[in-house]
Structures are given as structure tokens and as C-alpha cells.
Design a protein that fits this description.
3-stranded antiparallel beta sheet, alpha+beta, disordered N terminus, 3 domains, Chitinase A, domain 3, extended
């Protein structure tokens, strides 16, 4: 594997600057490789969702991967490999796919608009789609991984609020937030936890419950029986996504049909079938 050389400068402090909140990321170079450079703004766009607020080995490995790809790409260009027919064809295919995706992103998506009235109307006109098929519970959850922390929670659980305990001790404090709580069926919860949860009364706290992942404390926030209709707040985002997908398909089809009518298109089915048959042989 190619490693750092005098042509490679990894600016770790700049990466830290990028991943800090409230800083101007534009124009800050976080890495250089040969004649190419990677800016903070570009890195923020390249990083997978969830990494943009995280600084650590994984983020640095992502930058290292970019460096390796740049070095290999420049080495390929030095050898003029882009002029090879098969490489040129793949480059053209990649360009075509990128441009098609850009057309969808910058031309079609801005035409989409789903307002709250549409979402509400869909909910009220299709309540049969939102009937629960099983009993479900909504839980606040605290998880700790060692006995010392478990004992600390046990000592405080009767005198300190559940959300405060979660913030102080849980490895996932957001799971004790109403904004993140959701109804779950038995098969969506660890068996050891679900057995306890479905036997609790609303507002009751239980724990510790030991699993292979650690120690758990739960609070039953709410219970919804089988056959009840999900509240609008539970399904609003899903309805919005569904309507947006429907709207996208409508606009996409309309525009694509219009573009097809404006272009001269020929598809030789017989030639395609002959080609496939030749490859089979």
C-alpha cells in the first residue's frame, strides 16, 4: 500500500477544525496528495452520515483512503490509462450516471412539495393502514456495561429522575428521551427485556436486566394494545416519505416521457437478444 511521502500532507488539525461545530469549513485544506487537495467542505460532503460530527480513527482512515485513491488515479493518468477503450467506456458510464443523478437532484427534487395538509388528509383517509397488529410498548431505556455503573444506577434509581440517570450513566442517553421513544412490539425487543416490559404498568421502572450486551433499566412510558390506531405523530414521517416518493415518480415519469418524445430513440430488440445469445455461447 502506498504510504505518506513528501507529496502527501495530512493536516490532522484541519480535520479537527472541520469536525468542530460552528466553524467555517470552506476552503480549509484537510489533505493533499500529489496535485490534488481535499477541502473541509468536500470532506463533509464525502463523509457518511453520522461521521460529520465524529473525530477519530475512522474519519482519518476515510481521508487516508482518499489519499490512496488520488495517488493511484494520478499514477493511472501518468500511464494514460484513461485512453484505453475499456477504461474510457467506464469513465463515460460513470459520467452519464453522475449527470443523470444530478438532473434528478437539482431539477426534479426542487419541484417536489408535500405540505402538512396532504399528510394529514392521507392519515385520516387511510386509518386502516395504521392499525397495530400486536401489543406494543414505549420504553425509556438505560444501558450500562459494567457492574460498578450498574450499582451506581441502582443506588440512585429511586431518588433521581430516569432521564437524568440516562444522561449521566447510559451509553445511549438519547434512548431515554421522548423525542426518540417509539412503540415497539415484543419481537422488536430483546426477549429478556420484553418479558419484563410487557408485565409493567405505565410509569413503572424496572432493572437491572442482564443481557449479553450489558445491564438494562427500563421505564414503561406507554402501552398500546393490538388493534389500536397509531397516532398521527407516529406515522407522519413515514407518510411524508411515501407521498414524496409518489410525487417524485409522477414528476419523474412526466419529465422522462417529455424528454423521450423530444429525442430520437431506437431500441433494436432483436439485436439485443442476439447479443445475449452470443454471450451465452
Amino acid at each position: 500500500m502506498l504510504r505518506r511521502s513528501r507529496y502527501i500532507i495530512i493536516l490532522v488539525t484541519a480535520v479537527g477544525l472541520l469536525l468542530s461545530c460552528g466553524r467555517d469549513r470552506r476552503g480549509v485544506e484537510v489533505a493533499k496528495a500529489g496535485s490534488s487537495s481535499l477541502t473541509a467542505e468536500e470532506l463533509a460532503a464525502f463523509l457518511p452520515e453520522g461521521f460529520q460530527s465524529y473525530f477519530g480513527d475512522d474519519a482519518l482512515l476515510f481521508v487516508e483512503q482518499w489519499v490512496d485513491e488520488v495517488i493511484l488515479a494520478e499514477a493511472a493518468m501518468d500511464l494514460k490509462l484513461e485512453s484505453r477503450p475499456e477504461v474510457a467506456e467506464r469513465l463515460a458510464e460513470a459520467r452519464r450516471m453522475i449527470l443523470a443523478s444530478a438532473f434528478e437532484q437539482y431539477h426534479i427534487l426542487p419541484m417536489m412539495s408535500i405540505d402538512s395538509a396532504e399528510i394529514g388528509a392521507y392519515y385520516h383517509n387511510n386509518t386502516d393502514q395504521f392499525i397495530r397488529e400486536n401489543d406494543e410498548v414505549m420504553l425509556y431505556h438505560i444501558m450500562v456495561v459494567d457492574e460498578e455503573t450498574r450499582d451506581s444506577v441502582v443506588a440512585l434509581i429511586d431518588s433521581v429522575s430516569f432521564d437524568e440517570l440516562a444522561e449521566r450513566f447510559s451509553i445511549d442517553p438519547m434512548s431515554a428521551s421522548l423525542d426518540n421513544a417509539e412503540f415497539l412490539a415484543r419481537d422488536q425487543i430483546h426477549p429478556s427485556i420484553s418479558r419484563r416490559a410487557f408485565a409493567m404498568t405505565k410509569g413503572e421502572v424496572s432493572g437491572p436486566i442482564e443481557t449479553e450486551f450489558g445491564y438494562h433499566f427500563i421505564m414503561l412510558v406507554d402501552f398500546a394494545p393490538k388493534g389500536s390506531i397509531r397516532q398521527f405523530s407516529e406515522v407522519r414521517d413515514g407518510i411524508s416519505d411515501y407521498l414524496a416518493e409518489q410525487r417524485f415518480q409522477e414528476i419523474y415519469t412526466e419529465i422522462l416521457d417529455s424528454l423521450r418524445n423530444a429525442k430520437q430513440i431506437m431500441i433494436d430488440t432483436n439485436a439485443i437478444l442476439r447479443t445475449l445469445k452470443q454471450h451465452e455461447n
